[in-house]
Amino acid sequence: MRMQFWRDAVEDIYSDNPPHQPVATELWRAVKRHNLTKMWFMKIIDEREKNLDDRPYRNIQELETYAENTQSALLYLTLETLGVKDIHADHAASHIGKAQGIVTCLRATPYHCTRQKVFLPMDICMLHGVSQEDFIRGKQEKNVRDVIYDIASQAHIHLEHARSFSKKVPVKAYPAFFCTVALDDYLYNIRKVDFNIFHPSLQKKSTLLPLYLYIRSWKKTY
What we know:
Structural class: mainly alpha
């Protein structure tokens, strides 16, 4: 019902008749002001609805599809808000969104494990002979860390690819991509603890993130 409410709300927003709900009202104003594309909102809703059954991703491609239709879709909308219409910016948004989705899945793993749930791609787990029970029990053997390494590496590849053509991306689009600061920070920290997803240091806030964000903004990079 929750997803249906938002599906109906988006339809009403684009019919210029938003529901009397604070978020929907602000969304309607944003749509009017920036001419936001309805398709991206519907993709987010559809993908979230498909994901409500709380099952693990069958493979890394399925996780990337989820990330593309949620995280990347949000970045496409952010680019539209910034007034950026550029194929290279869209290409970067696709890869950064996928990286963000993968990192989000990794970061949430310890929390999900405490609730007896594991969403990591099954194909990579099977490749290394790791079961969901291994994660739920908080095991830290090498094959468990190898699973995390493979998944984190995929996020890193997406970030590097997004940066490989950064000179073609309009500088105006860069603010949409500053989320890479947090992604880089997490990937650096998990590498530092040898891909032990349960290491306590990964659950701590990084007090230096604002500084890193300022430096990235000053350097005009993402």
